[in-house]
Amino acid sequence: MSGKAQTVRVGTRTIRLTNLDKVLYPATGTTKGEVIEYYTRVAPVMLPHLRDRPVTRIRWPEGVAEPAFFAKELEAGAPSWLRRRGIAHSRGPKMYPLVDDLAGLVYLAQVASLELHTPQWRFLHEDADGDERPRQADRLVLDLDPGPGVGLAECAEVARWARAVLDDMGMPPLPVTSGSKGIHLYAPLPDGVTTDDAGALAHELARALEADHPDLVVSDMAKSRREGRVLLDWSQNNGAKTTIAPYSLRGRERPTVAAPRTWQELEAPELAHLDFSEVMRRVDAEGDLLLTLLPSRPAHVGGDLTTYIAKRNPGRTPEPLPSATPVIPSPELDRFVIQEHHASRLHWDLRLEHGGVLVSWAVPRGIPATSTKNALAVMTEDHPIDYLDFAGEIPRGEYGAGSMTIWDTGRYELEKWRDDEVIFTAEGRPGGPLGRVRFALIRTAGVGEKSTWLLHRMKTDAAGRTQPAARVEARTDAGPPDPLPAWGALRPMLAVAASAAQARARASRRGSWAEAKWDGIRALVRWDGQDVTIRGRSGRDMTAIYPELRAGPGGAPVILDGEIVALDNRHRPSFSRLQQRMNLTSAAEIAAARARIGVHFFAFDVLAADGLDLTAMPLRERRGILERVLADAGPTYVLTPVFDDVEAALAASRATDLEGIVAKDPASPYRSGARDEAWLKVVFTRRQDVVIGGIRPGRASRPGGIGSLLVGIPDQHGLRYVGRVGSGFDDAALRELDRLLTPLRTSAVPFHHVPAADAADALWVRPVVVGEVEFARFTPDGVLRHARWRGMRPDRDPLDVQVQGDQSG
C-alpha cells in the first residue's frame, strides 16, 4: 500500500487515507498502510465478533514508541456514516462507535486505533427513552494473566483446568492468546444471562480453580499474591468493562495480535504469541476458529451478513464486501436481481432487497416460465446490496466458484413477507427475459439458510388479470426432466473438520443428525439398471478393483454416495484390511484378495434416482429416497444408520472403535465437490493426508529398505515439508511402498524448507503418491508431531491435499 495520501472507496463509503508510510511499530518497521492492510484482510472473521458491540479504542497516532490515549467517546471528526450508540455515564451519555463493516474498520485503522476493546454484551433493544442499556451477556470471558515468574505455558495449564469445568457445564470454551502476556478463554452463554450473572459465574469458577490448584491459580487482584501464579481475572464480565477484541492488534513493541488458537496448540511447550503476518496466513488457511462463539439467527431476519463474510476471502474473489450498515431504504420500490450462476452445477440466484440486505434463494432449474411448473428454491445466506450488479468469475477453490452473469434485474412490489411466504410482483429491465411477473415463494421445509421453498409463477397479477407468458424461458425449463447428472460433473461433497463441541453447538442451532465414519474409501456408485461404475473422490475409476459391488443395489438407475469398507472378524471396519485391496491391478490378484477380504458399500446419500437430480433436495428428503432404493438391495449394499442425537452418535462410535462421526444439517442440499460446513466431521484421533516426496534409508531393523517417509502438504509456494513418518508400517506396507516409490526416484527436491538434517541422506521421489497419517498435533512451525503411518490413499489427488484442521474429539 503506497505511502502517498489517497482516497479509497470501501463499499459505498469514501475514506481518505493519509501518512500510509508512517512507521507505527519501529521495532519491525510496520507502517500504517500495513496496519490497514491487516485489518482489511481479517475483516471477514473479525467483524462478526465486533457486531453490535460498542468499541473503545487505544490510539497511537505517533506509533507505539510514543504515548497512547484511551478513547471511549467517538471523536468529533469521525465520519457521519459510522454507526454509534449512547451509553449512560455519570456526566451524561457518551456515543460509542459500532463497527459492523469494513469501512468502519478501515477508518479506525486510519486514525491509528490499534487496539479495539469490546464488552461481553451486544446492543439488542432500546429502552423507552432511547438510551440502549446493556443487560444481557452473550459470552463469558476469563483472562488468564501470568504473574512474575510464570508465562504462557502455565497459563495454558490453567486454561485446560478451566476447560474441563466449562465443558462439564455445557459451555465449551475457545482459547485466544492475548498478544500481550496471557490467554483469554471465551465461552458462549445461553439466552437470558445478565452481565451480573456472568460475572458471578466467572468469579465462582475462578475461586473453585484457586481452591483446587492454590500453588498456581489466584483469583484475587492483589499484586502481592501473584508472584509465581496465574491470575484468573473474572472481572471483565462486568457490563462496564471491556476485553481486547479477537483479531485486534496490540500496541506492543511488535505487532502481535489477540489470536484465536486451537487446544492442540496450547499443549506445545514452545507456545508463543502470534504477530499480524502469522495471523493473516492462518485466517486465509483456516478461517475463523471462534465461529461457534457467534450467535445464530435465521438468515432472512435482521439482515445478517455474518455468513456471507465468513465464506469469502477478500482479495481472492471479486465479489463485493458488505457496505456500511444500516442501509438507508430507497424511496423507490425495492430492487431485485436474478443471476445465472455457472458453479459446480448451473443454477439461478434470485435476490430480493429487504431489511438492508439481499435475501437470496438458489433456483436450480431456473425461473418458471408458466404457472403450471413450480421451481425448487433453496434459501442461501444474505448478500450485501452491492451484489445487485455483480457479474464476474469467482475463482476455482473459492466458495461458489464459477462464472456469474445478470439474467435480469429491476424493481419489485411487495404484497406479503412472512417467515413462510413471500408474494411480490417483479418487473425486469426493458426487453429483458422476465417482463412483469407476480411470484409466490412458499417455504416447505427448514428455517433460514438452506430451507427449501417453492417458487410459483402466479396465473394472475395483483389485480386478478391473467399474466402474459414469459418472453424468454430459462433454458433448463423446457422439455422433460433432465436425465441422471453427467458422471464427469459429480464429485463427493466434503465435510469440514470440527471438534465434538462444535458439532454439538451446530446441532443445537440447526437440528441434530449424525452418522458414523466408517474408516473406508469414499466412492460414488452409478447404477444404470444393469451394471455399476465406481469412482473415488479424485475421479479415479475403481470398478474393476471391487467386483463384488458390480451387482449393484438393484432396481431403477441411481447414483449413491458412501464408503467402501472392509470388515474385520468382529465385523468392524478395518482400514488395514482394506489397504490389501486398494492397489491391486491384475484380475488374478483381485480375485485372490476378494476370497480373503470382502468389501461392502455403506451408502449414506443418494444423488439421483428415477431419472431426477436430487442434489438440491434437503438431506432429510434424500434419506427417505435412499431407504426406498436400498430396501431390496443385496448384502453388499448397506444402509448406514442415522442418529438423531450427536451425543449418542459420539458415544456409539467410541464404544465400537469407529474413527468418528459426521454431523449433518438435515436441511442441507448436496453440494457436489464442495467442502461445506453443513457436514462436520469429528475424528477421534487427528488424521492428515500427506504427499510423499522422499525416503530416508533404513538402518538397524530396516537396513537397505525404507527407514522413514518425508512428506508434505501443498501450499501457495509448492509442497511444504511437514516432517518424517517412521512408524506404523508392517512388512507388506513397506514392500508396497518400495514398489510404488522406486520408479519415481528423481534428483529434484520436491519440497521447500526442508531442514538440512532431514535432507542429508534423503532419496527424493516425484510427489504423486498420497498417504494418510495419524499424529498428535502440528508444531507452531507446521511439522507433524508423533506421526504414524496409516496407509496409502490412491483415492486422493495430491493437488487436493490440504491441512485438515483441528480434528480432536
Automatic annotation (TrEMBL):
One of its GO terms (biological process) is DNA recombination. It is an enzyme of class 6 (ligase). PROSITE patterns: DNA_LIGASE_A1, DNA_LIGASE_A3. Its EC number is 6.5.1.1. Its cofactor is Mn(2+). It catalyses: ATP + (deoxyribonucleotide)n-3'-hydroxyl + 5'-phospho-(deoxyribonucleotide)m = (deoxyribonucleotide)n+m + AMP + diphosphate. Keywords: ATP-binding, DNA damage, DNA recombination, DNA repair, DNA-binding, DNA-directed DNA polymerase, Exonuclease, Hydrolase, Ligase, Manganese, Metal-binding, Multifunctional enzyme, Nuclease, Nucleotide-binding, Nucleotidyltransferase, Transferase. InterPro entries: DNA_ligase_ATP-dep_C, DNA_ligase_ATP-dep_cent, DNA_ligase_ATP-dep_CS, LigD_ligase_dom, LigD_PE_domain, LigD_pol_dom, MtLigD_Pol-like, NA-bd_OB-fold. The keyword Cell membrane does not apply. Gene3D superfamilies: 3.30.1490.70, DNA ligase/mRNA capping enzyme (3.30.470.30), DNA primase, PRIM domain (3.90.920.10), Nucleic acid-binding proteins (2.40.50.140). Residues 592-715 form the ATP-dependent DNA ligase family profile domain. One of its GO terms (molecular function) is DNA ligase (ATP) activity. In the N-terminal section; belongs to the LigD polymerase family. In the C-terminal section; belongs to the ATP-dependent DNA ligase family. This is DNA ligase (ATP).
